[in-house]
Structures are given as C-alpha cells and as structure tokens.
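Regression check, glutamine case 540:
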Amino acid sequence: MKNKKVKKASKYIFVTGGVLSGVGKGITAASIGAILKAKGFKVSIQKCDPYLNVDAGLLNPVEHGECFVTADGKETDLDLGHYERFLDFETNYFSSVLSGALYRELIEKERSGGFHGKTVQMVPHFTDLVQEKIEKASEGSDIHIVEIGGTVGDYEGLSFIEAIRLFANRVGRENCLYVHVVYVPWINTSKELKTKPAQNALKDLRGFGIIPDVVVCRTEKLAPRSMCEKIAAFSGIPGEAVLNLPDIESVYDVPLNVLKSGVLEILNRFVGTDTEPCMTQWEEFSRLRREKWEKTVKVGLVAKYAGNEDAYICVTEALKAAAAWEKVNLEIVWINAEDLAEDDSKGAKAAWKQVEDADGLVVPGGFGVRGSEGKIRAAEYALENDEPYLGLCLGMQMACVAAARRGGLKKAGSEEFGAGKDENVIYIMSGQEGKESTGGTMRLGNYPAKLTEGSRVAEIYGGLEVIERHRHRYEVNQKFLPEIEKGGLIVTGRSPEGSLVEFVESPSHKFFVATQAHPEFKSRPLNVHPLFREFVRSLK
Ligand code: GLN
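Current build output:
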C-alpha cells in the first residue's frame, strides 16, 4: 500500500445493505472512506446499481433526486455527490456502474462476435465484467470502496453480490472487507428493538457466501450494547464487529459517529496501520454547523421540483456549508417558480412575498418550460431591487432573458421554450438539434472558461482561468448581447475561444453572478466553492 506505483487498489471494502434500503448505506460507505482518508490513504469509491438504465441522465429528478455529473461527463445519481463531498476527490466515469450499461457492453460484444461462439452467461461473463469495472475504478488509489445499491436478496442485485464474493478469490480474502448495513426497528407498542430482520438479512448474505467483517446496525436511537451482541451471537460474527449507528441530525456528523462506533480497530487491522485519523476539520465543521449564530440569512431557492429537496442536493449542501463557515444560520425558503406569476392570486402574492423577504435568491438548473417565466421574473426582480442573485445553468439563461427584456427585447426567451430566431436569447448549440430526449448528448462535464480581468467573478475565483462542470444543451446567443447589456448584465467569462458565454454579472449590483456551469458539483463541506461562499457573504 505504501508503494505509490501500484496501479489498482490493494484493499477493497464492499458495502451492502439489508432489511431496508435508504438507511444511509452510502453515507456510511463515504464516512468509512473519510476516516481512511484522514489516516492518510488515497481512497476511491464507486457505486454499483442494479438498474437497467444505462446512466442516470434520463431519470426524473422528482423521483430520483438530482442528477450528478462527474468531471469527465458521466451523468450519475446523487450518491456520487455525497462521495465527492465526504472524500473531497473527483469521481469519474467508472465510479458509477449500472446494470444497463454492463448488459449493453456484453450484448455489443456478443453481436460483434467477441465471445467466439460461446454462450454468454450471468456467471461468469456478467460477474467478470463487474469485477473488471471495480478494478478499473480502483486505479490510482490505495483503498477502494464499493457500495452495492438496493438490499441483499433483491432479485436484480444478485449478480453484483456474486461478483463481490468472487472478488475475494481475485485479490485474496484478507484484502477484502465486507460491511453490511442493516436496520433494526424500534417497535413502539412493545417498546423493544427487533433484531430478527437483521438476523434474517445476515442469513441471506451468508446464503450468498459472504460473512461480513463489519455489521452496522442502524437504529433510531442509541441502542444498548446487548442488541449488537445478540445479532453477533445469532449470526456467527464476533461481537466487536457489530456496531451501532443511531440517527443523527446532520449527515456530516456521520464520519465522527462511525469513528466513535468502534470501527477504527477493525479498519486498523484491515489496513495494517494504527495511525490516528486526523479529523480536526470534520470536528470544526460539525461544531460550526451546530452553533446557533446571531445572524440568519434567508435564501430563496426558486425551484421547479419543489416537492423533492434531493433534486437540488448539491446546491443546498453548498449553501449549508457556506453558511457554517461564514458563521450564519441558514434558512432555505423554497419558492415555487410556477407561483411567481403576474396576477393577484393568493399563490402569486405569497410567492412574491417570499422573494421580497429573502436576503438573496438562487435560481438553480432545470429543464422544460414549466416555471421558466417565474424564474425570469425572479431574475428581473433581483436585478431591479439589488437583491443578491446566484444563477446556476438555467438560472443564468433566465437571467440573460430577463436582462434582454429589460434591454428592450420584450419577447426575449429561450429556444428550449419555443422562442423564434428574433427573440431566442438562449438558443440551441449547433449539433444539439433534435436530441432533447436522448441520453448522454448534452455538453457534459468539465470545460474551461476565461474570465475578464477586473470582473467580480475573477475576484471571487482569484484567477482568470477556471474549470467547471456542465450539463446543458442551450447557450447564450451572443447576437443579443447589446440587449442583455442594456438590461444590466455583462459577460465576464467565456469558453477559451470565445464562442460560448460561461459567466455573466451585473457590475453595479450587490451580488448578481450567474454561470452556465454547475459550480455546486465542486463544492465540498470542508472546501466550499468560492461562488457560494461569496454569495452567502453578500447576504450578511
Ligand atoms: N435546460 C437548459 C439547457 O439544457 C439548462 C440546463 C440546466 O440547467 N442544467 O441548456
């Protein structure tokens, strides 16, 4: 492990779940990673999901939460965002593996004769491919963590469980650590914790040939030690390997809680060193987050998918972290963009009151016409009333439309919502026409931008060259820059050759900055993105 030249990781940690999904398996996996990182290891992490989708690009954000984009342009689910936040590293194309992509690869190989007349089977072909993807994603790190989506026993996930069992033959059982996260429910009527579902979940896992090295019991409240001992006794696992993780208020306290749960000894044995992990930054962040500050800042999030906060999780996490380090309390006010109408309806009045009461507005990314007029009006309001505004992707596009309308182009709009060529301030990139419902065809991942010297963004970033992640199909139509400028916004960042607008700002405004990119994807709790930090600072 000390040998930095090793290509693949030499140690692997597999995290599976039992009883229920959605009890924090991903956060547990990421927290174990954060602890190992704090011990000085290079850690990578990957999610294997048994969905038949090829990637997460076409999944509905209301149902599945935000679509996260990696630096190299893969559209993934929001777990990868958690990984990046907890480990402060960049996931990549290989960090997310969906069954659909694996089947596609196998079938394409079969169609091109790549199996030389052999039958193609789940075992060994699918399971080998899973293992190859795991090795690939582990490249360059000391320890690689793999989270398997769903719960053990799910029909569609079986081949992944088989693949991680087989993986121990590939690298040696001593180089694999299996962590099983189970839920232990509290039954209120009889006032007791019920361990039977956890016992059954462990029996299922054993049935697939895996005896875990660590069992994490998730409970609502801190459980007596006897609960862990009982599960251990019934499942043939040493008592000290069964840990309890009760619910806590903030996910960012999970790394510290995992550490307290007694996992460190097991991890030390596994990696062969007993250095203390340096968790001071996590401790500091946890302390700042828990503090009640004198000042509260109110951020209005003008959103379309207001029913599911997970749809904007990177944005809200970036704001929360910025507030903690800026030592203010944060109140996020969800403003339904569709309510920001021009009429006197009760809904519109209430929504406009929210806009007025907020200290600043964030207009995040989005797709489709619904709510777009409300976002344009919100941007117009912010421009006219010196209310801080941070526009992210669609949030920048709508700000440009608002400015163009103010600048005299009354019918300014976006081609995405039907604007014709005399008013399409936002228009389709050449080569993108007709691909609206096709997966993986947007401008995705990292792209550089050059900032204007002396601009607000240059000052915020502390330099003139930046790289941000993208996920969009439409662009600012530079033909309409005179109107946009007349309406109060200037372009202060472009793609290096100048053809694409990347940043706009209002020079005389308290804080009006918008970008075609998604800086929220690069914000970390321990290393907040400067745009979010400055935005929150402007609200103080
Ligand atoms: N719908 C817009 C586009 O495709 C904005 C996308 C976004 O906000 N991610 O360009």
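Comparison notes: The pocket of glutamine is lined by residues 365-367, 393-394, 397, 416, 471-474 (CB under 6 Å). The two ends are 47 Å apart (CA to CA). No diff flagged against the previous build.
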